[in-house]
Amino acid sequence: MTQTQTNVDEVVQSIAAETNTPAETVSQLYADTLATYRNDARIFDYVPLFVARKVRETLLQSPQRH
To answer: Which residues, including other chains, have CB under 8 Å from residue 41's CB and lie 6 or more apart?
Structure first.
């Protein structure tokens, strides 16, 4: 099962708003993280959930946050 582009866009926009980060930055980080997780995954059902969590955590822990 794959995540639709609409859902990805919604997740990216949500994380961008929550972390006060440009959507383009979130989108790139999401894509990079997704590629990494897909390389290691055997079951793909929850990969988008784990990717969103990792991206959110990464951005919230970023030293550039105010």
So the answer is: 47
